[in-house]
Specification:
It contains 15 helices and twelve strands. The protein is α+β, with helices and mostly antiparallel strands. The structure holds zinc ion. Zinc ion (ZN) binds next to helix 1 and helix 4.
Amino acid sequence: MRDPLSFDLFTLSSGLRVFHQPRDLPWFAANMIVHAGSVDDPVGKEGLSHLLEHQVNSGTHGMPWTNFGEFQEWADARGFDFDHGSTGSHATKFGGRAWSRDAEAYFGFLEAYLRRPILDGMLDHDRRIIRAERIDRDPPLRRKRFEEAVRLALFGNRRQATATGLPCDDVLFSLTQEDVRLAHERHYACPNMTLVVVGGIDTTVLRTILEKTFVPDRPFRPRTPSRLPFDIDPPAQREIISKKDDGSPTTSVRVTHIWAMRPTGAESVLLRNCLARTLNDRVRELERLAYHVSVDVSRNCDSETFYVNTDVAPEKVDRARKAIEEVFSDVAAVLRHLPRQRKSIALAIARTDMNVAHVVTEASESIEGEGWLIPLHELAAQFIAVGDDSVIRLLKRLTPSRALVTIYET
Ligand SMILES: [Zn+2]
């Protein structure tokens, strides 16, 4: 049986990396990952990558469309299903689908769209759209200030602390056409892009089409992500408290312990599961100190953040916090869950079933976040191979004294 995440990988002479998974279908899905996102925006020009993602939509040299509606009609007429892009913290992605027989036309369009945009108009219109997106997604003010304080405490003067695709108006409206053009020149080059293709196209045919389409253009040096050190210094501000400010009584408090560090491997996922079990057994079930306990790991190419979230009654905050922190020094209790977790994660991975959309999303997220793609059978093997010692080592690095503790009243 085919591994859902097994791909042929080749690099074109232009430097474009291609991950390809052939399937017996009359169509294909393609996702172009440009390795540039909000963390790449210069300080004071937050939102630039996002604005550029909107601006490439305004037309290309040698192509007929001039605005969003006309472009959509042009694409519809060709049977192209194109998503116009989305900007994340580390990448901007452009997904789409087309019939296999139209592969040449589709990749020709994609190349023009990404490499030869006009970038000379609609700036104010696009800035206003981004402003509307921000207003749409903005959390309430207290939550927003709290999240900003957490990022600042965790990342200090590193770029991750303030990077955002949805900047405030002052910053957004100071971005110029020249900024957009420079960002395009800096990032939208073949060696800084990865294409994921899944579907009905033969690898040799695909390679020939792409080699002809994405031709080498200029020398380019891709950025290297500046990763966090292994043990980031404990945050200078150790505790952030956000009290309810609307006069109503506090019914629940979320206590969160957070650690930021360099990305790790399978051990943090294993430790996450073992800790979740131990904390639930002890803090929620046995001592009845919390309504809810969850452990999360969020990882990308430059950092990993490990969270323990606990929802408790206001009068139990101190006791719950003490109980959570005690679990971190009880290595034996946490390790007790390791053999079973190792097996059950490996089993869950081995039994993963994916459709084309799922494969494209998973592959793209892995390439965006970790820079590479691991077939599922290899990933399962990695989990099996994680030794007790490396999980213990990670647990010992995550001491309560290095954590940022946040207390958010609701
Ligand atoms: Zn947008």
